[in-house]
Amino acid sequence: MILHDFQCEQKHRFEAALPSMHAENPRCPVCESPTRKLMSAIHMGNAADAGPSREQMPHSWQGIGGAHPDAVAHWRKKIEKREKLEEKYPELAGDRRPVLAHEGIFANKPLRAGDDIQKATREALSDQG
Ligand SMILES: [Zn+2]
Predict the structure, then answer these.
(1) In angstroms, what is the span from residue 4 Cα to ligand 1's centroid?
(2) What is the tens place of the pLDDT at every residue in 39-72?
(3) How far is residue 72's CA from residue 66's CA, in Å, rounded to a whole number?
(4) If you measure from the C-alpha of residue 64 to the centroid of ligand 1, how many angstroms do you get, rounded to a whole number?
(5) What is the pLDDT of residues 80-110, one digit of tens each?
(6) How far apart are the first and last CA of the chain?
(7) Measured in angstroms, how far is the CA atom of residue 16 from the centroid of ligand 1?
(8) Which stretches of 1-129 are assigned E, i.e. beta strand?
């Protein structure tokens, strides 16, 4: 059994044990609505919630819902939070060189300024199997 934290649509939080990683989430014991798994405190250790990394943030208009104002505000908040965090913990910032290509074969690992293009292309192609 693995203990997990859950939160329902009504923001009730509770802890429950699941027989496996892939077991279905239990319903909320208070209001019986569907729940989602929260990142467990154990897995997070003492680290603050770093939010999505820059690589995980959308890089295109589609990625931010065709620039829907809500989506833009959502990501702006995330980015600002991330920037504050990176000021405090520079090691989170990772590779800040400009991204030259991030689509197609470079979807998983963007090509950056200064990368050996032939090597990066070879690696990207072999990653695709
Ligand atoms: Zn509930």
Answers:
(1) 16
(2) 754 544 444 566 666 666 666 665 666 667 777 7
(3) 9
(4) 30
(5) 888 888 888 777 777 778 888 888 888 888 8
(6) 36
(7) 13
(8) 2-8, 13-18, 35-38, 99-101, 111-112
